[in-house]
Amino acid sequence: MTHPEMNDVYELYVLGVLEPEAVAKIDEHVADGCSYCLEHLQDATLLASAMVGLAEPQKPPRRLRKRLLDSVGQPRRRSNLWFAVAALSAACLALAVYSFWAASSVRSLQNQIAEVRDERNELRSAVEILSQPGTRTVQFGVAENVPHGRAFVTPSGGIVFVGSQLPRIAADRAFELWLIPRQGAPRPAGVFRPNERGNFVNVARRSVNVSDLQALAVSVEPLQGSAAPTTTPILVVPLA
Q1: Per residue in 116-155, pLDDT tens?
Q2: CATH label of the domain that carries residue 143
Q3: Is residue 208 domain-resident?
Q4: Distance between CA atoms of 41 and 165, rounded to whole angstroms?
């Protein structure tokens, strides 16, 4: 059974009404640590749990209630029956709340891991560039309340642009670094956003003709970046 075939049966698996053959196939994927199946099973569990609270409470007819109570056999057991029903309802509600919390916690942890992994890869690339011979360091900004940092330019390795105190921008916008040549149009060198502490690192792994490079600039652009600046640069770092 392939993943596309499983997409329509994860909910049935969670509810325990899936055919044994299909259950065995999904069990195999889960046992192998299949991230695709685990993620979809989490979503299916959340959906099934949420369905607990969708049904409107209904008051049973008096006739049905009497038949149910009579079927217990002894009048003194009626309180026990209603206690059991109340306990089961509370358990279902607790399961729904726990499932929602667990799914949210897993997603939050996955996002944190992805962010740490991205930062690690960015720093690793920065170290590789900084270890290249002929690296030139340019400092920009001196005050604490204005953008400040350093640009490391390596002719054969690329550019590392680090600093802090860039202004806040909308969630659907990003900063884009530009290479400003002595002649010709600016060239894009990557988009980035500061972290929660306001620090930023942008690594551009590309060959740079330092003698032809006049400055670096930063402008606010769409998240995916632009082929050419669409706003006035908020920061210009002269290199010449």
Answers
A1: 566 566 666 666 666 677 788 899 987 777 889 989 888 7
A2: 2.60.40
A3: yes
A4: 42
